[in-house]
Input
Amino acid sequence: MITNRQIHHLGMCSGLWFALLLGLFGMISPARADETTHLNVAYKTDVQPLLKQFCYKCHSGDTAEAEIDLTAFVDLTQIRQHPKTWQQISEMLTSEQMPPQDAVQPSTEERARMHQWVQNYLTMEAAAHAGDPGPVVLRRLNNVEYTYTLQDLTQIGDLNVAKEFPVDSAAGEGFTNVGNSLVMSPSLLTKYLDAAKEVAAHAVLLPEGMRFSTYMTRRDWVNEYLTKIRGLYGRYTGHGGGSTGVQKEPGEDWRAYLQRLGANRSGKLSVERYLLATIEDREALASGIKTIEVVAKERGLSPKYLGTVWTMLNDVDRKSLLIDPLRVKWKTANSAEILQLMELITPWQNFLFKFNPVGQIGLHENIHSWLVPVNPLVSRHEFRVKLPGEEKGEISLSLQADDAGDGNANDDAVWERPRFVMAGRPDLLLRDVDRVATTVTQSRDRYAAQSAKCLAAAHEADQSSAPIELALLAKKHGVDVEALTAWLDYLGVGNGGRQALGTPMLGKQESFEASDFIKGWIGEDGHSVLANLSDQRVRVPGDMQPQSVFVHPSATRAVVIGWRSPIAATIKISGSIQHRDPACGDKTLWSLQRRRGNTRQQLAAGRSKGAELLSVGSFDSVVVRPGDVIALVISPKETQACDLTAIDLTLSDGKHEWNLWKEILPDILAGNPHADSQGNPDVWHFTSEPVNASVGTVFPVDSLISKWQAASEPTEKMRLADELQRVLQLDPATLPKDSPEAFLVQQFRSLSGPFLSPILNAAANAPSDLPTVTQPKWGLPLMRFGRSLDGRATEDANLCVHAPEILEVRLPAEFVAGSEFVTSGLLHPEMAQEGSVRLQVQMTPAGAVGPSSTASAMLVTEGSQTAQRIQTAFEEFRSLFPPTLCYSQIVPADETVTLILFYREDDQLRRLMLTPEESAQLDQLWQELLYVSQEPLEISSAFVQLYQYATQDRPDLMPGFERLRKPVQDRVDAFRQKLIDNEPQQLNAVIEFAKKAYRRPLIDTDVAQIRDLYASLRVQELAHDEALRLTLARILVSPAFLYRLEKPGAGTKAGPVSDDELANRLSYFLWSSAPDAELLSLAAAGKLHDPDVVAAQARRMLKDAKIRRMATEFGCHWLHIHDFDHLDEKSERHFPTFNALRGAMYEESILVLTDMLQNDRSVVSLVDGDSTFLNEELARHYGIPGIMGREWRRVENVRQYSRGSILSLATTLSKQSGASRTSPILRGNWLSEVVLGEKLPRPPKNVPVLSETVPEGLTERQLIARHTSDRACAKCHLRFDPFGFALEGFDAIGRLRTTDAAGLPIDTKTVLFDGTSVDGLADLKHYLGTTRRQAFVGQFQRKILGYALGRSVQLSDEPLLAEIQKQLNQNDNHVAIVVEAIVRSPQFREIRGRNRVSDE
Amino acid sequence: MPQHFSRRTFLRGLGVSMALPWMESLPVWGDEISGSQKSSEAPVRLAVLFSGNGYHSKEWWAKGQGKAMQLGQVLAPLHDFREKLLFVQGLYNVEATKGNIHSSQTGNLLSGAPLAPGGEIKSGTSVDQYLAQTYGRSTKVQSLVLGCEAANPSVHSNYSMLYSSHISWTTPTTPTPLELYPSLAFDRLFKDEVQKGDKSVLDAIIADATDIRREISISDQRKLDEYLDSVRDVERRIEQAGQKGELQGWRPTLDKPNFARPADGIPQNIADHMRLMCDILVLGFQTDTTRIATLKLNNDHSALRFPHLNVDYMIHHLLSHSDGEDWLKVNRFFVEQLGYIASKLDAIQEGERTLLDNSMLMMCSSMMSGGHKNDELPVVMVGGGGGRIQGGRILDYRKQPNRQMCRLYLSMMDKMNVRPKTFGDATEALNEV
Output
């Protein structure tokens, strides 16, 4: 186009301008020279006169229409300077837009003549410049290319640092990869810098270099490694033998995730799966039909281990104590018997191995690993069997001895002093059970029968001021002295002694946590009583409010705050407790008691509730005598940690008041016991007693005995005493559970209680030479004890057996419940030197004899041959069947005090399962995990903290910590040094990265500049890590990364681009990203410029999954549906489903285009095809039946549903519609311009206004018809509206319809501009696929060429396009033809010379 | 063109790193901008608001003057500012009438330059960016270029839709990228961008680019200069950081933002989005972080819908081809944005005048109405231009010769003491303004 200004400008042109023009057009061959002469002559004679006649009227001079002054074209010389103008003229002639309809028209012959000449001229002009690379302006990577390039460079699939960048604009043929429209600005540059820093933050520095991670924090990187290592572990462990099945939830805290993972201890060896394989594939393996490898692969097993197991099971010559039974059983086992086989393995696994707490490894001298072999060969086997606490009926024990599976020669064993042990009473020998039980039962019955009388005697003693003669008193009331003594003790009568108050706390605490206003007493177990004397609130931890008293029990001892009464009175008591550290601590238990003599009356009791302030009750009339104690007891619930408890206690007799806080206020440290404020000495006691102390007796509240004590009326007292006696004689089982009476009876009958313990003590210590019973009710006959089977004497209480022997022992539950059965087993020292016996104690329900388990400790004589033989068998078993293969939890998150951050124990896995490659990979991952997590530094800081924390209440840990101090520090030093040593390697890795980022080999200055920047940043005191990341960022904002730089040759002549540049052209064309290794290596080898090589590469690249990017960047841009998944142009009121569906709609289009490119389909199938891609969601939208599920699939035969063309995609149909209704104009215009590449005249100057709503009774089509009847409009609308009318069978979001929203019938019959009648999509598809096939294919290749070159298609490209069209016609229009022809073309492979500036 | 290019290269040799606008007759920046403004006087600010697709064909009008001025329904939201308002009729860009479609009418609105068709990109430096590169250099941010609708990445009828989406042009070939994210616009004004080592990185990439520049073609060099200019600009900003307090005399009424950084992302509701952008624009002026701003409320050929106005059945562009009540409603909603900015600025006292008195707010579109008619453009201005614009008037150039929009731009620049001899296709200012 010649504008006024340009013509004006030409007039002023300097010689330089002409020189340039000559340079451009000076390459015409002699043959062509003839042609130009001929054209020039034809112009003068045939064309110019016609122009004069029909065109000059409007197109001349300064006021020329459309600024085209045809009079300026004197001859071919001027014409050749403006080929674009003549292309325009050609279009006008083709479309018959010119001359305008109201002007005089040339004859058909004249028009044809003119047109032919223009065509001839353009063909000549195109040929003259064919292959010109054209003006391709330096291209910045557009946002998509930038994003894909970064994703491919970093291998982070979802990296999208450009998401808030300004949208790229389109130019050239309508794509966003054209240099002209890819601008840069300061604000954009700042965004690039920020984005580069963000990418750099994804770099993980490794000993040998770096890699990129999805994550940006060390914590997440560590998690990433843990996941990878666990993945490798999971390959052969756990239930499936595969993955742990535990996935990190999105957003889940990684610690929580690790906890969850840890809970699933999945390092397990699943032997059963291997055994199953050997059974099910036994024949195939034995006959060689299948190899071990094949079976392993089929079943996801480790071939290595499967081979080991197979060999072991088939090795009949080997003899092994543990494995022989397995081998024998396996030989005939079918797959249903797998559990029986496992019975021969699992118990032994449990027995030959044990697990240490991982957290203790290293801290304790003897703990070195998690899984440790256990040596069950012992010369002495200790048993401690806890018996159930239920005191009813009988308990049955089975004492078993077997021959350990190797015959019973020499198998004599001894159960040494079998006995029942319980705190607070003498041990009861098994031998004596029957005798003691009989004695005690008889005494108890006698005491019960005398209880009312004893109470009467006790009352008398209590009332008497004189000392009591026990024997006389007993005689007087007709009771046994022992019984009376027991009752007096129980009631606290007459023993005269003062109430013992536990152990006083003696340590003075002058200050606490550096606060000298906190003082108090501390006991040896760390339990304490403290007073905060200040007005400050202190967190210690635990929250000490001002002016209060606190107690803190220890794990084993309760704190007792006691007030010893200096008076005899009836007093009031009130008080409170409050847990002050509920966030950390457990609950505490409290109890308020009155203690007198040996007795305790519990007034109230309970447990703390969070931080709630709890009243311990308010008691109005508690009778106290001098010496009685009111005690507030605070004991821990389970753990002692953080049980700081505030307490308050007030007592009053009406005249005086004792308040704990006020009483100790002046100085808590004045003494323990502490005087009261009235000068009475030793009133307040700060003591402790064992948790659950059974010292003395607590009278149940409201029990008969309490009532009896309280009663003053003699008859009432007598009645209560009788009632009590009756109750004591009842069967305890008949009393309501938890009633005060049940409790009372329990006290009475308790073997460690005040009544029976003296009897039990006496009986248990009595000599056993009492009458022997051959068949006793309980236990074993006395004759079994004290001698071996051959009659030799041994210790009296020992029990000798010869294996195998099972002894059933019945025991009275009343006497042994809750106790431990304790004994040791050993071989008989004389008779069993080479023996081997397994002893076991089992608790069995009475009468039932349980089967003995196969695995348990074996008694052998140390150093014997038997011992050695068994030892070997154990080792073999252990090496074959470790219960776990690795510690897959890695992080011992459930350990409280540990210095282990990550624990690696996978030697079994490596030994049994992994290939050398897998082992190496595992080593690598572990090495990187420890490096990236900075494990030595973490350990070091944890060490300091843990040391202080742990040794506070675990002094026993001190030596462990001390031992570790130096190794920890040494590792820190070594690690720090390693970090420094790795710096150069990491910088080298950044330089390596630059090579990939710049997408070409580096030159010396590149490297120097990168190194210089790093060095200068270090000089600015940036740490290595920061400096390195900034250097990385610098690479990513460098023009070499951000732009697609190409170095042209000198002068103006076009020449080939370098191989590297060609690799880039190819990869950005097809993949929108950097070239891959194959392209780069071909480029480096100098092979890529060979057109055959380029073409082969293009074909390879088309097959790659990355071709999807071309589908979106070329295909979707071309069809104007790019980013359709974000389209926000639909009325939510009219189309509520649209927003949810647009992603699926877009996916279909992308898949259709991807499929065409990747599978080399016909270009024509795009308009006239019969298949598409669907999932259930979209199929439902389209009304296509039989497509279920979310996954996408290619569906054939969709023509019947009116699909199978880009015209019938939901995307194009929706995009070319209004917000609430269809627009035949938009659809028609799109089809004409975008799909067929028709050039339309411009719209008239002032477009008439449409009415806002469709008038009643008119369809959209009728409305438009009315609009376009305007003559100015009609000339265009007639060209494209009919296309839109034919598509009216689809609504504004692409659904089929037969009526519009108002219910009016849809009419899809229409006549196209060329006179063709069509009805609906089917006809339109056919029309495009046949009549307009060339136009469509022409448009397609024009667009793809424009996309490939990053510029508008120009006249000199026409020969190439013609050639491609020819090839397509001959090859069924396969798309790869186009791609290959383009990459082979000079346009694609060459660049204009450095000094060539522009064309027109 | 080669001449243009060599001139540019020559200028670079002198160390001037600024691209020249399209007309070579422009002075080198700094020639005439020293001006007479007293250092104690508040600076004049300029904001241009754009909305695409024109306005209702019958309701964009004003009659009378001063308090007695009557406004058409589209302009009703400006009722309170009648006395500070200038209604300008009859100006147009002759270059924009040549394509006669959306994409050929917007990209040169603020420059009057011809637009290159055929998939090429070329317009002219827009008046706001011309001012940014001269007048704007004394503030932290030379200019704010804001938008509420993403650019349209396609080519329509032989013109890139890039033209429909950009009124601001840094150079004739560089449309200024729009900031759509309120949070990022806020950051651009107030984020402390200087981080340790940044300067070294920028130095390093300048060195890279300089090396590369020697080896690429002349046309590519020109493209790379966009990059170099950007890097230098960021560098300059880093160097200037913290110097704001050294201003002599006049001080802005606010020295840091008085509201929090907006949330990340783009607000779902277009009204919220526009409101936030208006707030940021006002804040930029009030803190004197920038003095030049453009706010492109939507694209020409816009696809916005307005559910909050109960108008979601038609996108903006298609609505513009009707002329009914809903179109009016939408027009008014856009003009309300101008009214909102004016009312906020008018509430900020700067010495004897309000910030509105010290500003020029111009609102315009690239066509008069939805029918693409653009031989008269809708223009309304609010604000006193530093006491140099008398409001409450109607300027009607419809029957007069020389109706170039660029004459108005010369007048506006004059109020800011920037007085190039010519701008775009105009050689003299409008005396009446």
Summary: DSSP finds 50 helices and 39 strands in chain A.
